Amino acid sequence: MAFIFPAPGVAGVEATLNISVTGDASNLTVPAMQDITVNNANDVFTWTQLDEGSKLQVATTATNSLDLNIVLDQTTFFGTGSGAAVAVNKGIFGLSKDKQLVEFQLYLGDTSTGGAGKTLSGFGYITGLALTASADAPVWVTPVTLSISGDYTVA
Description:
Layout lengths: L3 E2 L10 E5 L7 E2 L3 E15 L8 E16 L2 H5 L7 H12 L4 E6 L2 E2 L7 E9 L13 E8 L4 E2 L1
Antiparallel strand pairs: 1-7, 2-3, 2-6, 4-5, 5-9, 6-8, 8-9, 8-10
């Protein structure tokens, strides 16, 4: 069996998320991910017929998204504010605020045999930011949703 594990803290094999803007060769690597969820939810069209005792269903298009929680890194979240690298310049907040279509690559982590990890990629929009901090959690954290436009590509 080749279970996929995210290998927290192991350089080169841990789960990583890179975001870029089409036409820009630079990547914004999202640091301090606490967790990540890959969603692929097919919609289903349901109907009834007079000659059937049960409802009939057909799968239709899917709604895809990535949901994650991150501890905020000031530069990654708000961007550098300068330079030609659009994703690095705008940061996660600016890409969301400007409704910028982004390209993403999510490396899922490695397998027990090493060197066989898979990457999900595609295009989408950053949404769902909701920054919080509290006395019990004295660092800023936020959920992040990447609403995928289209399908995932697996490599």
